[in-house]
Amino acid sequence: MAEQSPAVPTDLAAAIAAIRSGPQGPQVAAVFDFATVVDGFGRSSLWRRTFRSNKGATAADTLLDSIRNQLTDGEYSRFLQQAMRTLAAQPEAELDELGTRLFRKKIYGHLYPEAWQLIRTHEAAGHTVVLATALTRFQVEPAAAELGIEHVLYTRMATTDGVLTGYADGKTLWRNGKADAVREFAAAHVLDITHSYVYADSIADLPLLSVVGHPVTVNPDRQLGTAAVEQNWPVLRFRPRRPPRAIDYLRTVAGFAGLLAGALFGVLSKSYTRQRRKMADALMAYGTGATLGTTGIRLRVSGAENARAPRPAVFLFNHQSQFDVIIVPKVLAGGVTGIGKKELTKNPIFGPLMRFVGVTFIDRANTTQAKAALAPVVHTLRGGLSIAVSPEGTRSYTPRIGPFKKGAFHIAIQAGVPVIPVVIRNAGEVNWRNSMVARKGTVDMAILDPIDVSSWDPSDMDDNVEAVRQLYTDTLLNWPQPDR
Questions:
Q1: What is the pLDDT of residues 282-291, one digit of tens each?
Q2: 300-337 burial string, b = 16+ CB within 10 Å, else e?
Q3: Is residue 55 over pLDDT 60?
């Protein structure tokens, strides 16, 4: 008997390199099974809820617990049965809202960072990215929207006057059903299936993997792993984003204690000068240093020279976590204040400290007041103090760069100072969007070259701002070497 060749182990860098060197353009599809994008919620939860009484299971239980990896035939069948009970008579609009809430509260924390990188790489290659699943749209569309995926294939649920009947509308996208749906999509969009990609994790998706010229298995189950060996298919390993552990909570508490102690020490160390700016810079230096040290967060920077000159400047950072207000001041090292949303004034730790260092707070709900509040910022810049601001205006659920607001650019133009992009990577991993808990890890920061905005034509503002935003996406995909 001939010896089988091992499946082709592939690291993420090699997979990305292969995509970049392969065929480009929209005729190539990149189909991601939902289980290769989201780390599921586990068998035990689904099994337990399936056998609860009808009163015990809710629509939220059904939508959330069926999101898992390597779903078996039996588990999918039980999901459909439970869906018939819990989703019947539910208005579509309410289920759409429920799906969005579940994503923002729980599912976003289970997105694989590796999947995000692959999706962005395919997007940069001009490929048609597709998210495919045997689940419902209520579970996958919020994730697709956050990931910027336009095309979503899912099992449709029958409705009458916008209310679910509890039955599937046509064929489910399970096994051959998913493969057929991808074939039909490819035909409708004139895609070159022989040069297209599929990412899947379960033996149930063997028909789907066999459809395209570039099948890739991701965290495959035992049976699919065997098939990957036989077919010599690439195997990728994605790591789940781990929940916080007890040590993380302890480090976080110590970090906030260090922030307060360091801030107090910084103010006292410069109090003899009676100069608020020197005390504020010392507050940030000692406070941020103590916080990062006790939480075990390390910073790795490229382009540090751009943080020091030119000054003053408007530093623009992509917003991923609550710890951005610690990370950014540490790297910029003094002579900087910020602009923050009004809600931060209610934070018992960050609020008082940000007020002391001169942060301008704006009410995003009131555009007129927000513009008026920004007027003194121009005077601040002209006085020699730099400003750090997130042009996205809010934290993102993924590394995706959200739309940029134009306020910071108008401020830079009026003050006659450059804007300097500060690109942050991994901050959302050490500190999740909706959490204050910090995990030990490394945050990468790239400080790009200053951008002169003095000659920008107002009529070209949208295009110029979008070009700056694209620099962030490009940098995240092609990260520069850190400073030595």
A1: 999 999 999 9
A2: ebbbeebbeeebbbbbbbbbbbbbbbbbbbbbbebbbb
A3: no
Q: What whole-number distance in Å separates Cα of residue 357 and Cα of residue 350?
A: 11
Residue with tokens 């990215």: 129
Q: Which of 50-59, 65-74, 183-192, 433-442 has the lowest mean pLDDT?
A: 50-59
Quote the CA–CA distance of 450 and 460 in Å, as a whole number.
19
Helix (H) or strand (E) holding 376: helix 367-382
How long, in residues, is the chain?
Answer: 484
Q: Give the contacts of 33 (CB within 8 A, at least 6 positions apart).
A: 132, 133, 178, 198, 199, 200, 201, 202, 205, 208
Contact predicate 362/369, CB 8 Å: yes
Could you give phi then psi for residue 179, rounded to 5 degrees? -60, -40
- DSSP structure class, residue 484: -
For 196, the 3-state DSSP assignment is coil
Tell me how far apart the alpha carbons of residues 469 and 453 are, in angstroms, rounded to a whole number: 14
Judged on CB neighbours under 10 Å (0-12, 13-18, 19+), 5 is exposed
| Distance between CA atoms of residues 62 and 155, nearest Å | 14
For every residue of 207-249, DSSP letters joined together read: HHHTTSSEEEEES--HHHHHHHHHHT-EEE-PPPPPPP-HHHH
Q: 208: which 2 tokens?
A: 């789907």
What is the end-to-end Cα distance of the chain in Å, rounded? 54
d(CA 171, CA 44): 27
Contact between 33 and 173 under an 8 Å Cβ cutoff? The reply is no
- Each residue of 23-34: b (16+ CB within 10 Å) or e? beeebbbbbbbb
Tell how far CA 99 is from the center of its chain.
17
DSSP label of 91: B
192-219: burial string, b at 16+ Cβ within 10 Å, e else: ebebbbbbbbbbbbbbbbebbebbbbbb
173-222 pLDDT, tens digit per residue, is 999 999 999 999 999 999 999 999 999 999 999 999 999 999 999 999 99
